[in-house]
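Sequence in, structure out. Go.
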Amino acid sequence: MRYTKASDTQDLKTHPTRALTELLRGKGAHADPIACIEDINADLATQRISGYPHSIADLVFHMNYWMNYELKRIRGEEPKYPEHNAESFPSNVQDWDHLKRDFAWFLSEFTKLADSPRDELNRQLESVHEGDKKISGTLESVLWQMIAHNSYHIGQIAMVRRALDAWPPTAGGDTW
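Output:
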């Protein structure tokens, strides 16, 4: 069991969004999202496993889709909400290097947003879909939602990598 030190508590008081930035980059119990994809080549990224609907590239496309959607909402735009989840997955093969580059860029944008002042984190975002109105719509809540969403799919990527005998990543990862 890890006990909280007084210095940890003080750090959280002076940097309340530290958990956001750490989790966006895979600290704590989360795998590092960049490390999970950066050493994968295009052949492995597009390989499908029998019985599993998505490749690694499909999952990265999907995470990029939703990070792009939420960034547009955060910036005051009104992105089109897909009628079906399938629309947030690619219908054809995508350029793997482009997907990885975009993924890293989106994560860096969300990390910058996580360092926003408290009044900005509390800013209510415009709802563009009925589903958006059913959950908290502050900037901070959207950041937490992205962390949960990406963590879920990075976990799927880790499982696909294990099934393809490509785990752990070069940068390291738990192997138990």
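Check: The CA atoms of residues 21 and 114 lie 6 Å apart. Residues 139-163 form the longest helix (25 residues).
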